[in-house]
What we know:
- The structure holds 2 protein chains of 2 kinds.
- By secondary structure, chain A is mainly alpha-helical.
- Chain A has helices spanning 9-28, 31-57, 65-81, 86-111, 118-142, 144-147, 159-162, 164-187, 189-199, 201-206, 211-237, 247-260, 267-284, 295-309, 313-341, and strands at residues 153-154, 239-240.
- Chain B folds into 2 domains: 1-81 and 169-176 and 200-258, 3-Layer(aba) Sandwich (Rossmann fold); 88-166, no CATH class.
- In chain B, 38% of the residues lie in helices and 24% in strands.
- In chain B, helix 3 packs across helix 4 (123-135), helix 3 (97-108) runs parallel beside helix 5 (151-164) and helix 4 crosses helix 5 (151-164).
- The termini of chain B are far apart.
- At the A-B interface, helix 8, helix 9, helix 10 and helix 11 of A face helix 2 and helix 3 of B.
Amino acid sequence: MILKKDISKRMMIFLGILLIALVILPHVSTLSTTTLFSRIFIMAIYAMSYDILRGYMGFINLGHALFFGSGAYIVGILFNNIGNTVPMFLVAIVITLIYSSIAALIMGKIVFRSKGGGAASVVAGAMTTLALGEIVRHTAERWRDVTMGADGLSFRIPPVFADRTMFYYYALIFLIVMTLILRQFINSPTGRVLMSIRENEQRAEFLGFDTEKYKLIGLQVSGIASGFSGVMFGVMNRFVNTELLTVQQTLNALLITLVGGTGTLYGAIIGSGFVNIVQSQLLNFRRVHPIFERWLLFFGAMYVIVVIFMPKGFMGLYYSITDKRKSKLQNQTIKETSGKTS
Amino acid sequence: MGEILIETKDIGISFGGHKAVNKVSIKLEKGKLTTILGPNGAGKTTLFNLISGLLEPTEGQVFFKGTDITRLSPLKRIKMGMGRSFQLTNVFGALTAFENIRLAMQSKENIGFKIFTDHRKYHQLNEKTDKILEKVLLKDKKEFLASELSHGEQRKLELGMVMALDPEILLLDEPTAGMAIEEVPVMIDIMKNIQKSGTTIILIEHKMDMVKTLSDKLIIIVNGMFLTEGDPETVSKDPEVLKAYLGGGVLDELAAKS
């Protein structure tokens, strides 16, 4: 695990340039690239919310998509039934906030009951989350009056979101704001306790932390962030179906964090960029050769390669390079000082 | 006898048919260092687990400051002022030494469920953490990950974490287990300092020579049963203790050397 390092000057400059590039991007690229990047930004927050659970809390949630999909459904149902206005979007945000925190509370109360840790209870917990996710998916599928079932729900969005370029900027702002909030959460006293729970829950309890409450808070924060990204995703696609509630959708988050680096927070952004770009490139190749109709095959191979050569993902690779450079510098200074004294 | 801090009444637990701890009744005095001594497998750690709440006894009761705590969760016992270390090193490996102790301090200071303030803004916590690190001689290693520390250093860190909680009573499970011989006196010094600050300590050991000078009182446990108790001088000369304990003890030492 990599602890948070304070941002260096060089990093600040890099981030500044990156931000400027991202602001200019929609004016110099095609519409499909702009949409691809909007998708990257939104999926990054979804994956980041998952990283809080897996990377910082050590909790495997196989039902994580239920927050994401529900957020998309909430905004879709509201736009469809009441009106596609900006105030309704804000209502959707508030409802998602309440819904996600209650859903996380219920999920947590069920899953975190079995104490004592151990592999068996981790698996049992993961299975329970899987079941809960499936319950929500089934409900969405059967509740045809509201959700249109397996056909999916398409809806009109407020005119302000309709422009792809403008929506790109909203997505970018969403990414930056949510990253700052989640970063703050990880650096808060509560976030630190979550990390200790990941390391050794029993020890954390013997330090006097009510670990179950901390885990509930962690799950709620993660669920809310996931729900918000679902709202954005729904607005972007103007369409929502039960696929957003499936285990596959949860695995997307898991794979993005794997590629980007688990327990690094920012890894989710890089992972989302990498995975989405590779996916869209592979889809483009279909025009080149029919074998790319089987693009999932190549997609799978990509994951295998990443896991073999970068077990800690892109961020892990980055940190190991900077750490090496740092220790090299330290060794040099040690040599220099010892040279002077002798 | 002074004030009694912890008392067990006929406490016992059995795993299957095996009685790991069998009707043990002991009283632990405030401000004293009591050592629970016994050969390996005598049930010392199990007794500790019963007192700290990790295990629930199948019979008997535990009292802490006069309150029956037999059915209380470990968390509640800790909030009442109990602190314990573990025999197997139990630190947060991927966090720095500083962070390990800072977390304990955060718990002690009751920071609560703050989610939007930076943990580094609690300067008071950081200063107190530094003081503890100094006490356990880990100041120059504070930025190291706990997993990068040597075994002996991890044991010191573990002790530092319990010290940060500033408990009324400290349960230490073989704090020198697996430590290099030259590090043991350092550990003893640290324990002596804790003792001086007035904290009650209960120590588990199986090396009698180490605790003889340190302890105010020895309690001997053999085969899960209470054998005898008293001041170190008398107990260590007790022929029954020598027979029951040294028999196993010598074998232990041999096993450890081979």
